[in-house]
Amino acid sequence: MINILLILQIQKSFNTIAIKYFIYLIIYCKHAIIPLKIFNLFYYNVILSFNSLVIIIFLLLQYLLFFILFFYFFSYIFFYIQLINFLLLKNIKINIINMQ
C-alpha cells in the first residue's frame, strides 16, 4: 500500500511539473515575439533594397520556424511525460495484482 501511494505521489509531481513548465513556456512564447521584432530591425538595413513583400515573407518564415521548433520540442516532452505516467500506472496494476 505504501508503494502504491509513493507511485501516485511521483505521478502527481510529474504532472504538476509538466503543467508548470508548459504554462511558463506559453508565457515565454508570448513575450518572445517582442525580442524577435527588435532582432528583425537589424535586417532592415541589409534588405532595404528589396521590396516589402520579400521582407514580409522573411519575417513570416522566421516566426514560422520559431513556432515549429517550439511545438516540436514540446511534443517530445509531453510524449515522455505520458510514457512515464503509463509506466507508473502499469506498476500500480502489477502491485495490486501481487497484493491480492
Automatic annotation (TrEMBL):
It comes from the Eukaryota. Keywords: Membrane, Transmembrane, Transmembrane helix. The chain crosses the membrane at residues 6-29, 41-61, 67-89. This is Transmembrane protein. It comes from Pseudocohnilembus persalinus (Ciliate). The lineage of its organism: Eukaryota, Sar, Alveolata, Ciliophora, Intramacronucleata.
